[in-house]
Write a structure and sequence with these properties.
heterodimer; A: 9 helices; B: alpha/beta
Chain lengths: 316, 332
Amino acid sequence: MTDNILEVRNLTKHFKTKRGMLHAVDGVDFTIQRGQTLGLVGESGCGKTTVGRTILRLIEPTAGDIIFEGENITKINQKKLKNVRKDMQLIFQDPYSSLDPRKTVSQIISEPIIANKILKTKEEIHARVAELMSTVGLAARLFNTYPHELDGGRRQRIGIARALAMEPKFIVCDEPVSALDVSIQAQILNLLKELQAEFHLSYIFITHDLSVVNHFSDEIAVMYLGKIVEKAPAEELFAHPLHPYTQALLSAIPVPDLRDKRERILIKGEITSPINPPQECRFKKRCNYAHDKCDEHPDLVEVTPGHLVACHLVNK
Amino acid sequence: MDKRDLVLDVKNLVVRYETEDGIVKAVNGLNLQIERGKAIGLVGETGAGKTTTALSLLRLIPKPPGVEECDHMFLDGLDMLSLSVKELEKVRGKDISMIFQDPMTALNPVLTVGDQIAESIFLHEDVSYAEARKRAIEMLEVVGIPGERANEYPHQFSGGMKQRVVIAIALACHPKLLIADEPTTALDVTIQAQVLDLMKNLRKHYKTSLIMITHDLGIVAEICDEVAVMYSGNIVERGTLEDVFNKTKHPYTEGLFNSLPNINDRKAMLTPIKGLMPDPTNIPVGCPFHPRCPYMGEDCKQPQWERAISDTHFVRCSAYDRPGFRIEREER
């Protein structure tokens, strides 16, 4: 029996725009097991952030089901949702804009505790904030400082402490290290891993950085224009990428190792518009192997256990 | 006497910004030499002084608050320090040019891209505007944009396309030295791959020397011949790719490598550098890295200078005066 913390079925989000329907997310399915990390990779505009926010119902889905801990939360009312949200939190990309500049570190971290009436007395709240700060490695002397006094790495630690305040089971990490320098990035990645082990957390890790996702995830889903094109355990995906887009994406990573002489696959053009996308395979216009069959969108099919691909080349 | 054919020779460059909150020491006695046709990667984290160095080479440091001191700065034999503002205008864009990080803000939104490329050619070369415009269209095609798009405005182009336009402007007059400041940071990986590929080919074609400013060691491995690692306003280690990547000497360079996820070994734990980059208004005495350095000793608090490991490899670390000293990252 697998222990799924989250199951997403046919998740779809379309936005109405002046120029037509924007298909941000188009029928995405996946599950996350408790204590595991799903990496969601793709380039700007592929819909990865929309997936993260729709799961938390910060954006209402157009269609599909979100099943969190066995309960379908797609349609539940705001009051019930508030309860569920204690268990699901979000860490934002930009530690510079996601913190209120007029609040101190302790005010920011205590906000969810007060809003949800978890603790009542000042002393209890103070003790809990101090505990959270030490969990994420923030020195106690920073209690009354403001975000602008701190560097990016420390600010991201505040964001993490705030997310942990509700003792969540599941966290959506939306590009949590993209704005940070490499030496600081490594500190934050290690912290997130330690917290996962300590509190048995499950993550969705959204990123465009493939070397980070490979290091961090158990399973990886590659998105292109609102659809998952390939999904596999991290090791399998890096060892045997099957979709032409995944192959190009992996070969495009600049590797800081002189002995790594990988053949680079350049793909032509740029991501096409997600507004009123045609019925054909979304990657067809940039694909080096496109043929007649690609006029029809391929389904995501399991080729080896746990490895799913949406490509006519593979799914004969 | 240095017999190498140097496009750039800078000695003892100091740049500081004198502000009300204190003196920001951005660049502290930097030496940089680039041979003709070579590409050097200037690597470091935010605040290391990479961009200030680039701006100083273009003589674009705002004064005040900036203050510059330098023993000498030669661009292909030309003494950059003695040039007047008017003379500098002739050099910038012609002999030395720069690609900025953010293609979204580097272009003028109210001029067509064709006019923006032509402007640079018209200003620097003795040609009619019609001729400059014709060459602008050729330049566009060189960077992989159809010539008929010359009459379009920057907002009609995607990020990757805009960066191609910026590259076209920078290379329009075949500069001797091109400085690229994080040219692909704002781009997606597949687009980054396209732009890097383009830069690599154009550099070969025009035999331009390149300073590639980046925080990404992967990009350096891809297109540079040499690397200089910057920390707190100075170069702490420099050498060929082979020297710095495979025979790493400086503890900071080692720390940078250990912070990177290894794509071929996903289980390896990351070893971050402890602490933070020092505040440039208050740089530690001696080696600026010593408070974060695992090999710190008493000698590190003394003034530092560069030691030659080989003819091409230099390290600014006094620990190499200790008998038998070596860092953990093994020779690979």
